[in-house]
Amino acid sequence: MIIVLLGPPGAGKGTQAARIMESRNLVQLSTGDMLRAAVAAGTDVGNKAKEFMAAGKLVTDEIVIGIIADRIEEDDCRDGFLLDGFPRTIAQAEALGKLLNDKGLKVDAVIEMKVEDESLVDRIAGRYTCADCKRGYHDTYLKPQKAGVCDGCGSTDFTRRADDNRETVTARLATYHTQTAPLLPFYEAQGVLRTIDGMVGIDDVTIQINNVLSAL
Length: 216
Ligand code: AMP
What we know:
Order of helices and strands: EHEHHHEHEHEEEHHEH
Mean pLDDT: 94
Strand order of the largest sheet: 2-3-1-4-8
Structural class: alpha/beta
Low-confidence stretches: none
Helix content: 40-55%
Bound molecules: adenosine monophosphate
Radius of gyration: 17 Å
Shape: globular
Largest sheet: 5 strands, parallel
């Protein structure tokens, strides 16, 4: 099964992807995570991507398509995967279609997580991640059961993303509307778009996603 999670920054794609990954045994492919790892490691790709990410702009199609093309060749992608943050432009969606077509595969569903812009800045500004197992949390909406201790691995080390600040979020939202939102009619025309309400609680979003996946 090949699933795309689509939605603005802060819609909850990463949170839901982690849950689906566990319950459906699908690999989560997050281009954002891969790019952050490349930046941290100081690779060529990371050095090229860094400025774009800090400005809330998209990294070039060429870079992210190359990353995904390599990644989906790996063994763990054989039974399907869940794309989180890719594609983000029509050119990326077309390239993905071609990569999959060459393997006799296709995107089974694109799940749009619909969230109002007004709620996104608060969602993003409050989020943080376990530095060890990468589990995501939020100052208000998703706290660890024991304050300061990760539920997943017990670590007490947490990080916040450099681009999760109010100025960059505004730029990322604008980028979403101009460059990524055109994917909605693109996938609707292919009959694979499923829209869910991303404004409800985290568990209720998961239920809606599971309903979509069960119906496939
Ligand atoms: P994310 O973690 O998905 O919010 O991505 C963080 C940043 O990485 C974005 O603001 C972009 O700068 C970059 N990025 C992630 N995925 C893509 C993509 N598919 N195309 C271009 N840039 C991306």
